[in-house]
Amino acid sequence: LSAFINLSPLYLIWTLIYVSYVLFTQQQQLKFEKYEISLAMKEAELNDLKKQLSPHFLFNSLNN
To answer: What is the largest CA-CA distance in the chain?
Structure first.
């Protein structure tokens, strides 16, 4: 019991460090996933705009 009481602050510090590390890595992963989703949405929007523009450009080119 005495050894456990002596080591309990060390266990507490180690646990706090581990939990902080896990939360930090999860936060970084969520930021990265959010960035990837945002990038994919912007690429999809750009492709959609390109598809809308292309037929009009082709029609105007052939019309002239």
So the answer is: 93
Token pair in block for residue 5: 């009481």
Q: What is the CA radius of gyration of the chain?
A: 28
Q: DSSP secondary structure string, the chain?
A: -HHHHHHHHHHHHHHHHHHHHHHHHHHHHHHHHHHHHHHHHHHHHHHHHHHHHHHHHHHHHHH-
Q: What is the pLDDT of residue 37?
A: 98
Letter for the amino acid at 64?
N
**Whole-angstrom Cα distance, residue 61 to residue 42?**
28
pTM score: 0.63
